[in-house]
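Why run this: before we spend reagent on co-expression, it is cheaper to look at a predicted model of the complex and decide which construct boundaries make sense. The entries below are exactly what would go into the expression plan.
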Amino acid sequence: MKRKLLTVITEQALERQLVQCIKAAGAHGYTITEARGEGQRGVRNADFDQGANIRVEVVCEANVAQQISEELHRRYFRDFAMVLYLSDVEVLRPEKF
Amino acid sequence: MKRKLLTVITEQALERQLVQCIKAAGAHGYTITEARGEGQRGVRNADFDQGANIRVEVVCEANVAQQISEELHRRYFRDFAMVLYLSDVEVLRPEKF
Amino acid sequence: MKRKLLTVITEQALERQLVQCIKAAGAHGYTITEARGEGQRGVRNADFDQGANIRVEVVCEANVAQQISEELHRRYFRDFAMVLYLSDVEVLRPEKF
Amino acid sequence: MQLDPVILFFLLGFGAGLLKAEMRLPSAVYELLTVVLLLSIGLKGGMELAETDWVRLLPQLGGVALMGVVLGLLAFALLRLSRKLPRSDAAAIAAHYGSVSVGTYAVAVAFLDTVGVPYEAYSAAFVVVLEVPAILLGIILVRGLRPDNGWNEVMREVFLGKGVVLLLGGLLIGLIVGAEGVAPLEPLFIDAFKGFLALFLLEMGLVAASQSGTIRRHGIFLLAFALVFPLLGATVGGLTAWLLSMSLGGAVLLATLGASASYIAAPAAMRLSVPEANPGLSLTAALAITFPFNVLVGVPLYYGVLNALYPATGG
Amino acid sequence: MQLDPVILFFLLGFGAGLLKAEMRLPSAVYELLTVVLLLSIGLKGGMELAETDWVRLLPQLGGVALMGVVLGLLAFALLRLSRKLPRSDAAAIAAHYGSVSVGTYAVAVAFLDTVGVPYEAYSAAFVVVLEVPAILLGIILVRGLRPDNGWNEVMREVFLGKGVVLLLGGLLIGLIVGAEGVAPLEPLFIDAFKGFLALFLLEMGLVAASQSGTIRRHGIFLLAFALVFPLLGATVGGLTAWLLSMSLGGAVLLATLGASASYIAAPAAMRLSVPEANPGLSLTAALAITFPFNVLVGVPLYYGVLNALYPATGG
Amino acid sequence: MQLDPVILFFLLGFGAGLLKAEMRLPSAVYELLTVVLLLSIGLKGGMELAETDWVRLLPQLGGVALMGVVLGLLAFALLRLSRKLPRSDAAAIAAHYGSVSVGTYAVAVAFLDTVGVPYEAYSAAFVVVLEVPAILLGIILVRGLRPDNGWNEVMREVFLGKGVVLLLGGLLIGLIVGAEGVAPLEPLFIDAFKGFLALFLLEMGLVAASQSGTIRRHGIFLLAFALVFPLLGATVGGLTAWLLSMSLGGAVLLATLGASASYIAAPAAMRLSVPEANPGLSLTAALAITFPFNVLVGVPLYYGVLNALYPATGG
Ligand SMILES: Nc1ncnc2c1ncn2[C@@H]1O[C@H](COP(=O)(O)O)[C@@H](O)[C@H]1O
Ligand SMILES: Nc1ncnc2c1ncn2[C@@H]1O[C@H](COP(=O)(O)O)[C@@H](O)[C@H]1O
Ligand SMILES: Nc1ncnc2c1ncn2[C@@H]1O[C@H](COP(=O)(O)O)[C@@H](O)[C@H]1O
Ligand code: NA
Ligand code: NA
Ligand code: NA
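The model came back. Tokens follow.
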């Protein structure tokens, strides 16, 4: 079954808010890995506490992904380092997502 | 060339078995990153030894991906925290996968 | 908007060169996570300093992805553990990539 | 009642955890602390063995192993009789409570040092011997004699966990090189022991607090079991010590081991061998209820009672 | 001028960082060092409180908290008068400079130990009290009394950071168990203090060097502020110490606190509560300019000046 | 033969690794241990230099550097003469064996402390000086004078690895502040040295065991080289010590350095500068064969032989 995979890369400091936002939109889960990287807001590496990124993945229905993206965009894009992208995935147990 | 990317997110404790299963199905490699997250079986974070997840990626032919998925499904879905999904990727050196 | 997601899994030792290559090709950013895994060149785990992999993601235009792939292929495939694959992603703010 | 400062570190971590303070020791630090504590306890035991006629102790180890099995069976029987839990969950919890927690043992050691009561440091060998049998029992109670993942895998998992390996390793090294040989290692492994234990308990407090939310979910029955069974375990431990003619200090240690529940070796082994058991149940009981209980109340209680009742010369 | 060896570790890290040496302490190690230093400073302070009529000190804490607010307002006024920065950036920087850096405090403590000047170890309580007010002030200067993320969230973030929790925890534990109770923890928390501080400063040197590239980007104004404001802060700190009748050593500590800028609690809080402020500005100032300045020049300077001017008996 | 307890930790790790025990020190801990050991060895050397007319030693450094080149050339010649390996692999292995392992040096230091033989602690400077030349030689043997990644990059990689930076840093700090200045750092860096070394060797045992599976793959020739070349290297090292008029202890250290093979600096540099060389070959030889050999057999052997043959007063 088709679902969307939403990937968000952003500042560690936003983790709590991000998770709230994901749940509020109705997604049933998420996965987080520690990451570092570089983008418009410069290098963000794990060298110092503040600096690192998280990479958050959510598998969900297309409209949920849409809603999370818009919400994040509205709230955080102006002031925070953040990148997000969507792709198509196939899942075996669609009821989980 | 087209291949499938299979992503499995599951309990760290299953790593050994998962790798065996991947190899048995004929995949030529895999990549693991440490992860944490939340799903049907609750929050799983790295706070305590037992709790964390691994995120395993396998690039392989579609039928191999199918076979691994089914095998994991059969063996582990009932009792373990596990999510898996498939997507399409393009590789440069198809003979590696 | 459509973009390409290029994922490269390779030896930690190549990080500096990889980043140079990504920037030279005109990509606007990248994300790195620590990884381990197994492939043609054997098991590469984080057990010992030398051994681990990095997993690098770049969201960019198709031709940039193409160029990075070719460059990496030319320079590093013979002598280094390296896997790369491409997939399609949709981004909200195409001007960032 | 004597107040050991390391206990305050546990309370600090617990309080910070309940308040959801922005603080956590990274897992690498937790690993380091565990390794150092295990080696430290092992080395101390080994140094003592080096001055003891330790061959004489070998039969005692059998008795202590038996105690682990008895405690596991007792826990299983109680849980099954209550008719509250399926067989697999009852067996998994029994495995945790028949096995032991080295962290709790370390707290008891620190307590005895603080109150100045001597003890048999070689009891570290009893920790090793107690860790395994109840886990095997738990598996057998569900799978019979044919575990899904095969005995090879089970044995590897159970006997080659870091608890057994590092305690045993420390014991052997201490035994081989003796007190004089260990001397140059003392600044790290002996003198800094209580400092490391304090950091370890700070982290354990944080962990226990983060797990404590699950207590409510599992209901009053689990809570009651996790508070009452330690008293039973301590009694069995104290009796065993008496049968083995140990000193008062040794009896406190063995009572503490009886009262303690494994939260490292047992969860890992049961997850793979009895996966249908709910890991949340046993981990909540062992880590969020029994561990804090033993650290805060149990150890001084067992000491208080044994101090009053235990015959001065052992059994 | 006395040379403290730990300073050389900072220089080693700084040099290695500038040369882009292949070296970095993993973040888990940095965390461990921070935790140990915080607890160590707290315990030392608490032991002293245990022998002091500490209730008498409570009103002083109010005075010190006020000093934090005054420093924050002073910084904000200066930055706004210069017309170089938008309100949000000025407020964020003010929050950093009104608050304090425990790492800098630790360097001052080590310095006083080296030159053999006694000090009030309970000043650790002042560190706790100084950490928070200026951060709240910074938020209020931008958001007024209604922060976007709500006061609950802000308070949690500010009061439950590891700085406040571990310092306060250490102080309380030291106060409760006293010097005798802390004794078994000393090998790790007291004797090894300077060694841990050396490792910490090695890492801070690496970090400061990696941040130093951003100094140029932010221009001469930020550089000037980050070098001059510490002198102002030290003066205010020294005066406060005099008003509170502290010893010369205590005055050096309070001057150092006044001069220091937070690079842990303040950045985290401002990022969430005043996200439109550029975090690069304040972090560069606090970490890449003011921290090295205080460590290398400030602490000995404040001591030198106070040693010459400070009335022998306090105020 | 004297038994050093730290060796037993290596055996414990090695055994646990072979049995595939569920145990591993996290890489952050390994990093911390490496940093502490390097600084510790550097500081000890620096303190000694502070009391020595160290300018006199400068020319000796040239002699020791030459020894590194000679050992590299010797290894290369042997490997090429055997006709078993392509030029790039021979050069890479030669770079490893001409360079040195600080971990092995630390074991030799601990050994001499245990047997009570004095030594020139400033030999830490020889470790620094030996680390680099053979690596440059290895690159030149394959690339000539024009490495692919440019000399700048090569030099950065080679001279700014953590080995050189931390040893040199420790030496300089020890030299500047002298024994009295280092005193407050001693609890962590000096007293706890053997404890840290024990943990380090535990981890190295695990690593060596995990690598030992690759020995078979690379055949008997590599095994023979990795066992025989150390004897040659030790001989050259002992002779060099004699030429430099060092004491018996110093000769054991220099023999050990000659016998040891780099497993940190050399692999990193060769991977980037001579990528066509198989990194598995040299790492297996250095880490899975030569390191254990030196730790378990080599160091006591070199001591035994030198103790019998070395002229009492040096050369
Ligand atoms: N083109 C890109 N491809 C992959 N990751 C990116 C890209 N751009 C930015 N990132 C990641 O997203 C984070 C925030 O990006 P930015 O907001 O552009 O600074 C960076 O630190 C990177 O980890
Ligand atoms: N919808 C989802 N999107 C991304 N990751 C998920 C999702 N659901 C679960 N996961 C991950 O898979 C793990 C196991 O999921 P579960 O079996 O549902 O508990 C979780 O701990 C998450 O890391
Ligand atoms: N089929 C695969 N699927 C996913 N990751 C792979 C695969 N093959 C190799 N890798 C990763 O890429 C790294 C280098 O691969 P190789 O060059 O084949 O040794 C491995 O260590 C794995 O982390
Ligand atoms: Na028990
Ligand atoms: Na300040
Ligand atoms: Na050598």
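Chain F has a mean pLDDT of 93. Chains F and B do not touch (no CB pair under 8 Å). Bring this page to Monday's planning discussion.
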